[in-house]
Amino acid sequence: MGILNLFLAASMPVLKVLLVTAVGSFLALDRIKILTEDARKHLNTVVFYVCTPALILGTLAQTITYDSMAKLWFMPINVFITFIIGTLLGWLVNLVTRPPPHLRGLVIGCCAAGNLGNILIIIVPAVCKEKGSPFGDPDVCSTYGLAYTSLSMAMGAIFLWGYVYNVIRLSIEVSASSVSECTTITGTAEPESFTEPLLSPKEYNVSEDKADSLPCTRFDGTQVGVADKLKQNVMNISRNLNLKKLFSPSTNAAILGFIIGLVPLLKNLLIGDEAPLHVIEDSIVWIGDAAVPVLTLIIGANLLKGLQASGIQKSMIVGIIIARYIALPIIGTLIVRTAVRFNLVSADPLYQFVLLLQFAVPPAMNIGTITQLFGKGESECSVIMLWTYVFATVSLTLWCTFFMWLVA
Questions:
Q1: φ/ψ of residue 121, rounded to 5
Q2: Where are the transmembrane segments (predicted)?
Q3: For residues 248-258, b (16+ Cβ closer than 10 Å) or e, as one string?
Q4: What is the reported pLDDT for 175?
Q5: Average pLDDT by consecutive 10-residue portion of the chain (408 residues)?
Q6: How deeply is 291 buried, as exposed, middle or buried, from its count of CB atoms within 10 A (0-12, 13-18, 19+)?
Q7: Which residues contact 273 (CB under 8 A, 6 or more apart)?
Q8: What gap in Å lies between CA 146 and CA 87, rounded to an integer?
Q9: Of 266, 202, 301, 234, which Cα lies nearest the Cα of 61?
Q10: Are 10 and 127 in contact (CB under 8 A)?
């Protein structure tokens, strides 16, 4: 199959996403006032709690079997690897660009957590339906592609809320506590809260780059040692880890989908045109079908906020783009191809394509939700999302073309 045909097959889904995203941005304009901030919040709640779990439940229940389980075991490991490598790349970006302390967790999160659900659920079925696709029958490809991407979404949600959520939270809390310790030597310390804005560096007559390097003084005049700081951070992590977010609606839907798919009695009762309760499955699939277009509209509306924000470090954005769209896909390609060589991954081209694509997607949109929860880094996150998703239109097209050529 020619490179040109593969390029056309890869570019069409990205263009579709771009067009629907543009519609979402248009509906969010101040003079249109359809996708207002309140409307987006309500719509996002419906998608998060209803549409996306229905999509995951329906596709997994239809496609999961004991045979497919043997093939899918590598995907959770692959998702875990993307987070580990992304974390290391984020640490390097922080080392080079030296962002403010409360943004360092955001940088690591944007490098580590890719959009393993929404973007894949949009792109993979669209690629299957293109004439130049190397993945065979479009209907079969779409069904199994949705199963792969649904599992990817569930695993991504677990790592996002279990790991990135706490990384960003701890970064904000450590930054706030450092400022409090350094500036309340003679006064009464304010209660620690990561929902209150940090004081600007000008109020301390120090620069942002040096604010975190100044020695903090305790009330008794002694400096905090490295061992004490390390011990305090470890205790904070163990005491404050928020694991409640692990079991999000998407994760619960994936668990239920696995149960239905692997229990013959439930599968025969619910799945298939001859099933006695197939109307339940049809209703779930019907609701889930709304997830993809609505998610794309919300992404477009949310990206509009990035045009209205300013003052973010350009080098930080460039570092995240290089990490996500150059370094991570190259490393991911080597990892997946090595796994294929050692027969750790099945020969299914579509499955390999999804594994490769997990390394090339833009940052997870839910990172913006996390910054909103803490009230820190919202404007910076919106700018990061804007530019990373703008570059994703080119990056995803090129990487999709290469990945399809690689697995074809």
A1: -65, -30
A2: 6-29, 41-61, 73-93, 105-127, 147-168, 253-271, 283-304, 316-338, 350-374, 386-407
A3: bbbbebbebbb
A4: 72
A5: 78 86 90 88 86 87 83 92 96 93 92 89 86 83 86 84 87 73 49 34 38 42 57 57 65 88 92 91 91 84 76 88 96 96 90 96 86 80 88 92 91
A6: buried
A7: none
A8: 27
A9: 266
A10: yes
Question: What 8-state DSSP symbol labels residue 326?
Answer: I
- Residue 133 gets the label, from left (phi > 0), alpha (psi -120 to 50) or beta, of beta
141: exposed, middle or buried (C-beta count within 10 Å: 0-12, 13-18, 19+)? buried
**3-28 in b/e burial notation, b at 16+ Cβ within 10 A?**
eebbbebbbbbbeebbebbebbbbbb
Say if residues 146 and 124 touch (Cβ distance below 8 Å). Answer: yes
Considering only CA atoms, which of 80, 96, 120, 78 is closest in space to residue 323? 96
Q: Give the pLDDT of residue 226.
A: 62
Query: Hey, what are 268's tokens?
Result: 């025969």
The backbone torsions φ and ψ at residue 132, rounded to the nearest 5 degrees and listed phi first, read -85, 10
* Sequential DSSP letters for 196-239: SPPPPGGGGT--HHHHTTSPPB-TTSPBPPHHHHHHHHHHHHHH
Contact 346, 71 (CB under 8 A): yes
**What residue ranges define each of the domains in the chain, with the CATH number in brackets?**
3-177+247-407 (1.20.1530)
The span from the CA of 263 to the CA of 248, in Å, is 23
In the numeric block, the tokens 């109307």 are attached to 279
By CB atoms closer than 10 A (0-12, 13-18, 19+), residue 247 is: middle
Cα separation, 302 vs 25, whole angstroms: 7
Token reading at 150: 């649904």
Helix axes 74-97, 314-322, angle to 10 degrees: 150
Q: What DSSP character marks residue 193?
A: -
CB 218 within 8 Å of CB 229: no
Neighbours of 289 (CB within 10 A): 14
* Per-residue model confidence (pLDDT) at position 214: 38
What are the Cα distances from residue 342, in Å, to 339, 347, 391?
5, 11, 34
Q: Residue 77: exposed, middle, or buried by beta-carbon count in 10 A (0-12, 13-18, 19+)? A: middle
